[in-house]
Design a protein that fits this description.
The protein is of the alpha+beta class and 436 residues long. Helices cover 28% and strands 26% of the residues. Helix 1 packs across helix 5 and helix 2 crosses helix 10.
Amino acid sequence: MDKLVPHTPRINQELARYGVKFGIYKNNEFYERLFPFDAVPRIIPHADWEILEKGLAQRVDALNAFLGDIYGERNIVKDGVIPEDFIFSCSGYLPECDGIKPPKGIYSHISGIDLVLGRDGVWYVLEDNLRIPSGASYPLIARNITRRCSPTTFRETNLMDNRAYGEILNRVFNHVNRGGINVIFTPGRYNAAYFEHSFLAERTGAVLAEAGDLYVENERLYYRSYSGDEQVGAIYRRISDEYLDPTCFLPESVIGIPNLMCAYRAGNVAIINAPGNGIGDDKGIYYFVPKMVEYYLHETPILKNAPTYLPFYEEDLKYTLDHLDTLVIKDTAEAGGYGVVFGDSLDEAGLADMAAKIKAEPRRWITQEVIDFEELDTWIDGELVPRKADLRAFVLSGARTEVWPSGLTRYAREAGNSIVNSSQGGGFKDTWVLSR
């Protein structure tokens, strides 16, 4: 795909013109910057994609079953598969959601599953994002612009079209809609992914709305419009649980919708993704996802987790302390690449300090073996250089579970860096899935 390299500056200029930005919070300040794009794509052979597609759908189906169980009968706890105190000590578990069954029983309508391809040729899942995963809009618009810059490339390459994402998302909205319009609920332009909110509203035909545009009356959600107020049947929220409804969660929230949870509990509106999903993408719960596949689906997991240890268990705590200098240490309370420490980067004092923290709060940490994952050719400062890259795959759950045949490939801009998150300054590539 060397013919795409010369187009990289022009494509980035077009992305800037469209305002394709990503916000970064650093030192308690908000910085908005262009999201750097590299035109050299990640290419996934069709045979590999067929395995990924089945494994991703299987994983998300198991996670949806788990969420329904945890906020319902909790059989997986009663049967001893996951310890009870491990569940209820998770910050993502919301007791306010107990007993609420969302429309059609779907909790995670849009799941962002982060994977890396190891040098051993095996795809490993690093984490599951079931709350408000972002990123699908970036490869969508990037491919549109790249297609205009180099149309012959796409005529000569047999790859799966990624332009249907908006249609798939709209089908999900309509499947769970309780009667009324579809809304994408944004906290506003200062959100890190505001570009995506507006872009997806355009692609799906949904209304883009902020808190001041929405209100609840008689346990129904309404949108204030110039032509008269309209009932909302499905709301794709792009704000965190704690800010969603000040009457139920944080009372100081000024970006939430008062009494939204009342309308949701009454079954009059679908919230996409469901409140309380944080229990499903907790870094500690991640350890149990292969067990969920076996427990709920009675199937063998297709995709592998990274080898993971829970210091919550005495045996894993001992292994972690004995091998701390070779492991990756992750704080389960953090996200976006924050709270990740490589043991081999710590000196003797740092290792002792980390060991003390893990022993003091074992539930707060997980540790993993370091996966030597692939580097992709990336055009930086006028030359092709290898950079670490991951893949965020998007799985949409509606009438059926569909895996979008594309994805957000994120790469580290610094040589040797394994943290590729956009919130940490990484760039992105398109992901090409080859067709038959």
